[in-house]
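Sample intake — choline-phosphate cytidylyltransferase
Collected from: Erinaceus europaeus
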Amino acid sequence: MPVLTTDAESETGIPKSFSNEPPSETMEEIEHTCPQPRLTLTAPAPFADETSCHCQAPHERLTIAQARLGTPVDRPVRVYADGIFDLFHSGHARALMQAKTLFPNSYLLVGVCSDDLTHKFKGFTVMNEAERYEALRHCRYVDEVIRDAPWTLTPEFLEKHKIDFVAHDDIPYSSAGSDDVYKHIKEAGMFVPTQRTEGISTSDIITRIVRDYDVYARRNLQRGYTAKELNVSFINEKKYRFQNQVDKMKEKVKNVEERSKEFVNRVEEKSHDLIQKWEEKSREFIGNFLELFGPDGAWAQFQATQ
């Protein structure tokens, strides 16, 4: 495996190039003991501070070509993806699935930013950091979760977690005074792009909730939440409760109408049955009458013999 040269670093300190010198004998003797990708899904992914990589073998960053060829079993490609992951949804999961399957033997580390960092650089979240950490631990593609992840990736952070590549969608992410917080990662050849899922995002979900706020407020009042918990004013609470009562009355009227229609339909069906039976009985009665009293009936024959 190629070894990083000591002078192969960018201005940010991130290694950029590889030499073709073979590893020394002492390096070859040290086996990799990095955590392995999860094989079973019977437990949530661990946190990084619970299972830090203490591998003594030197971490020689890979090229994308090397990673795609496949690495030894004891040396998974360590791919890092980060984000806020508020209201964890299918778009998040699909991005992590892509990051996990970029290479044949990948170990996916996912960094989740804290509430303090997120509120400072992006805005308020629906879920708090503990909830967001826990949501990521239960995603099948995640091998390890890093809590309180940095907003901008430093060489020290990348080295600490022995990260080979950083996965994110390729759209420049402007934040914290930078036009693209992943620019230095891209320049170092460590960036691998994923594709965004159209039609789903945390902002979209929040927009739906805001748009239909009255509907959700009324629903939660019905379910037992208080106006204080929903931050609903006294007047709006009364309005919502009145609307709920009106809806209940409408539902009752609708049910009565439906039952009335069912009753009328049953009466009509019974009426048709009765009429059909009456017609059948009438034809039978007339037939019997003619057989007895008709011109050729039994009574006429009896009279002829007298």
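Post-analysis note: The chain has two domains: 3-201, 234-300.
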